[in-house]
Amino acid sequence: MNRREFLCVGAACLLGMLDGQKIVEASYYEPMIYKRFFQFTEYEERPVTDALVIHHTGFLNVDKDSTAAAVHKFHQEDRKWAGIGYHYLIRKDGMIEQGRRPQMIGAHAFGHNKHSIGVCLAGNFDIGKPTNAQMKAVKELCRWLCRKYGLDPMKKGVIVGHRDVNDTACPGKHLYKRLGEIRRFCS
Length: 187
Ligand SMILES: [Zn+2]
Fold this sequence. Notes:
Layout: H1 3-18, E1 33-34, E2 51-56, H2 68-78, E3 88-90, E4 96-98, E5 116-121, H3 132-149, E6 159-161, H4 162-165, H5 173-176, H6 179-186
Parallel strand pairs: 1-4, 2-5, 2-6, 3-5
Antiparallel strand pairs: 3-4
The structure holds zinc ion.
Zinc ion binds at residues 55, 162, 168, 170.
């Protein structure tokens, strides 16, 4: 573990305590999450968490990688949102980056932000396919989130694609068809 990773883990522990989250049990496995603390123009806590909404970045006509920092800048400056709308962004190499702080209300699924976490994979999955590293990361992240929030991954409406709740192609056909695989891994 290098110094940066050590500090990230330390920050995660500290945040966990500040959030008032219960101490995780030994069976909980938090994947390595790269945490940078973006500045948001407003903070509002999410009252309840009963769903994980899966997205792709879905840039027009291009399947490309993105960083949480780039999405944060785009959502804040172009969309005029508080900051990055997703709670997690998964890079093509499988790195999980924290976006919006986990306890905050996100901006990723209209009408559903107050009760869900937004998990976004970098790419356009109507064109390309999620990488093996991204699939491994999203499975581990969702499994941990289901345990953290006490969710049953096989229950209808718990792990959903953005298109299940809004009129959108997101998260693209090549990721959408693999949601069952994610649910089964989490259960
Ligand atoms: Zn989406």
